[in-house]
Amino acid sequence: MLRLHHAPMACSLASRFALAEAGLAHEVAVVRTARGENRTAAYLRVNPRGKVPALETDQGVITESTAILPFIADLAPEADLLPPPGTFARAQAQAWLSFLSSTVHSAYTGALRPEAFDGCDTAAVRAVHVARIGAALQEVDAHLANRDHLLDAFSLCDLYLLVFLLWRGAPAVAGKLPALANLDAFQQRMLARPALAAILGEEMKLMAEG
Fold first, then answer.
1. Span(s) in the chain for CATH 1.20.1050.10
2. pLDDT grade, residue 100 (50/70/90)?
3. What DSSP line would sit under 6-57, residue for residue?
4. What's the topology of domain 88-193?
5. Residue 96's closest CA among 162, 191, 185?
6. Taking a C-beta distance cutoff of 8 angstroms, is the pair 31, 5 a contact?
7. Which of 26, 46, 153, 159 could form a Cys-Cys staple with 2, CB 3.0–4.6 A?
8. What is the pTM of this model?
9. In degrees, to the nearest 5, what angle opens at C-alpha 180 toward C-alphas 141 and 127?
């Protein structure tokens, strides 16, 4: 049985979406990072880095979204969630996963947690990273002109992107990003997928519970 360690509305949400879309039997272990549960001895035995996601498998634990998402896709090849390994299309998919992780996610980290930059003015740090988010999302928005998905068809790349689009509602960035009509339409299409809508409803309840 797969067991996903996940914090509500964190980047690990992409892995939760992926498991649902893949139709794989799994459990979700909620890790409330706001309460420091990711720093407990019990969780550090799962992931010594104290981060989510972490996916427990029969062979061991996998960490990092860019490793977990392809692993899930390959466990359910019939779901066609990523192009086959070894193909050019798979390399393109990996490029998108890497861009979303290294560029979009890292920019959000600076915008949502500017205090992590010791000795720097937090307002200035946040402003720089909000601008980085805007620039990166504008690039993706342009790519999505006249197309429905990041790749030629629906993939786990779309699920990863969706998480970062949902983060636009965070108070630190809300109203500070440029207009992104293609991404807005993309987000609505994605949330029309029944499995995703149901999960997002559960996520909202978890957030409300603190």
1. 88-193
2. very high
3. E-TTSTTHHHHHHHHHHT--EEEEE--GGGTGGGSHHHHHH-TT--S-EEEE
4. Glutathione S-transferase Yfyf (Class Pi); Chain A, domain 2 (1.20.1050)
5. 162
6. yes
7. 26
8. 0.96
9. 100
